[in-house]
């Protein structure tokens, strides 16, 4: 039997529902947690009427141009605005958003620049998405105070340079995605402060030079991807600073396997983790061979001091000069790089653009020398990070369908090189097979109780009818 007070409580809940459950036109809203879904409706601006206490707001796949202060409420916890046409974000747009945990601004290709104050004060933010935003530079202090950030997505932009201490406040960052940019160098303090970093993805850039102390703070790094760059040499001392390293990818770089490679060769021989091939392009007698498979006899006339060749000759503070591989193409007018250390010197033009990935096989693109199954599993005792590519086309199917991630921290590598299990050979010839299986993300329709802003008159009559029925029940139960 109903208790005597139940009918009255039910009546009060129903009668108060409409006051707290408004919803913008063409959107879907529901409670617990309070959510507004306005995806894929060609909105040119943030729709009006978003409930002031909404916790989750989904505005992806529209044509929104600007984000201004007052568009959202400081109660917002999750905000997705990816795949729009955003060209400007007012610096105070997210001011006071102390509860915001995930902000996805990715795939706004014409954004191109951000104010240094854009994300200040977002102390609880744990995932920030800025992939494919056309960014060519990041201002100093843009990540200041984001001490709870764990996932930072900067891939597929036009970044050429990362200034010192850009990430110094990100003490809890575990995943940093920088692949698909135009980075050409890594300095001593580029990654300073990232003591909790687990994965660093730098593939598909134009890296030519890495400071021997570039990774000095990355004591917990387990995964480092440097494949498909323009590296001709890398000091073994760079990698000795990574005691937790398990997965290293160096393939598809023009490695020069002469005396300069001796320290890297020595480090690879001692490394017990999983590595890719390290294909030599020079000298001619070693072209096509894997540096890992060479013997000591393949380095004639190389003394022990040669292993420190890079650290002595390619240091900013030492000679103020960068050793760059000359292009075999006809001479071109020299170009000035604003971030090259220069003493009235001119440097050769940067390498030609990287070759495009080969065609897909069965829907998966293959990078030469790398298994297409690149996601390593987690070590025992670690929390599993199932980082998969978000399928953009799946969201927005059906009328205002709301998609909920099973794990909000799971985000895509946004690269064809990460698809599943992994099988590779370590430097000592042993086979290291890693399998990584993640539960596929599920998309669910809105739960019962969803309010869709379609016919306000009908919903109002239904509301009055329910209130009347509840009132009668209350009287009967008395």
TrEMBL record:
Q: Has keyword NAD?
A: no
Per UniProt, the ranges with Pro residues bias are: 348-360
Record field: compositional bias (Basic and acidic residues): 415-424
Q: Quote the biased-composition stretches of kind Basic residues, using this chain's numbering.
A: 381-395
Matching SMART domains:
LRR_TYP, LRRCT
Limits of the LRRCT domain = 253-303
Key words, A-Z: Cell membrane, Cell projection, Glycoprotein, Leucine-rich repeat, Lipoprotein, Membrane, Receptor, Repeat, Signal
Recorded hits in Pfam families, A to Z, give:
LRR_4, LRR_8
This protein's GO cellular component annotations are: cell projection; membrane raft; perikaryon; plasma membrane; side of membrane
Q: Which GO terms describe its molecular function?
A: heparin binding; Roundabout binding
Membrane topology qualifier: Lipid-anchor
What SUPFAM superfamilies does the record point to? Answer: L domain-like
Q: Which Gene3D superfamilies match?
A: Ribonuclease Inhibitor
Indicate whether tRNA-binding appears among the record's keywords.
no
Leader peptide range in chain numbering: 1-22
The protein, known as: Nogo receptor homolog 2a
- The record lists the organism as Danio rerio
Its taxonomic placement starts with: Eukaryota, Metazoa, Chordata, Craniata, Vertebrata
Q: Which gene encodes it?
A: rtn4rl1b
């Amino acid at each position: 039997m109903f208790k005597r007070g139940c009918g009255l409580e039910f009546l009060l809940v129903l009668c108060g529902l409409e006051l707290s459950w408004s919803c913008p036109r063409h959107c879907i809203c529901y409670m617990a947690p309070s959510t507004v879904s306005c995806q894929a409706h060609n909105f040119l601006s943030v729709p009006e009427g978003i409930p002031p206490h909404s916790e989750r707001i989904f505005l992806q796949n529209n044509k929104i141009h600007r984000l201004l202060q007052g568009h959202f409420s400081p109660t917002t916890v999750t905000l997705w605005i990816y795949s729009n046409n955003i060209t400007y974000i007012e610096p105070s747009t997210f001011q006071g958003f102390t509860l915001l945990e995930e902000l996805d601004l990715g795939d706004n290709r014409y954004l191109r620049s951000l104010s240094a104050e854009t994300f200040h004060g977002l102390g609880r933010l744990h995932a920030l998405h800025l992939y494919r935003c056309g960014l060519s530079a990041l201002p100093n202090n843009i990540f200041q105070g984001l001490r709870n950030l764990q996932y930072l997505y900067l891939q597929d932009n036009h970044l050429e340079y990362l200034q010192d201490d850009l990430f110094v406040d990100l003490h809890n960052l575990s995943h940093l995605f920088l692949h698909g940019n135009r980075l050409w160098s890594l300095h001593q303090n580029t990654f300073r402060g990232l003591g909790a970093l687990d994965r660093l993805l730098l593939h598909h850039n134009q890296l030519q030079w890495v400071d021997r102390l570039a990774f000095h703070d990355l004591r917990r790094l387990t995964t480092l991807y440097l494949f498909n760059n323009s590296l001709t040499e890398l000091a073994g001392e760079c990698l000795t600073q990574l005691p937790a390293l398990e997965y290293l990818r160096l393939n598809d770089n023009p490695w020069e396997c002469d005396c300069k490679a001796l320290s890297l060769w020595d480090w690879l021989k001692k490394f017990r983790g999983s590595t890719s091939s390290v294909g030599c392009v020079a000298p001619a007698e070693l072209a096509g061979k894997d540096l890992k498979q060479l013997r000591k006899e393949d380095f004639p006339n190389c003394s022990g001091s040669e292993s420190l060749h890079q650290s002595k000759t390619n240091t900013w503070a030492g000679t103020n000069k960068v050793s760059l591989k000359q292009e075999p193409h006809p001479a071109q007018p020299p170009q000035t790089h604003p971030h090259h250390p220069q003493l009235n010197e001119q440097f050769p033009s940067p390498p030609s653009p990287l070759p495009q990935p080969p065609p897909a096989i069965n829907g998966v693109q293959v990078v030469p020398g790398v298994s297409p199954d690149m996601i390593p599993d987690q070590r025992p005792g670690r929390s599993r990070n199932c980082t998969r590519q978000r399928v953009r086309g799946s969201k927005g199917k059906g009328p205002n369908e709301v998609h909920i991630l099973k794990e909000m921290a799971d985000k895509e590598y946004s690269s064809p090189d990460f698809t599943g299990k992994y099988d590779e050979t370590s430097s000592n010839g042993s086979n290291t097979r890693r399998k990584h299986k993640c539960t596929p993300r599920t998309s669910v329709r809105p739960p019962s109780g969803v309010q869709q802003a379609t016919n306000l008159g009908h919903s109002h009559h239904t509301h009055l009818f329910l209130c009347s029925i509840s009132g009668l029940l209350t009287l009967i139960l008395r």
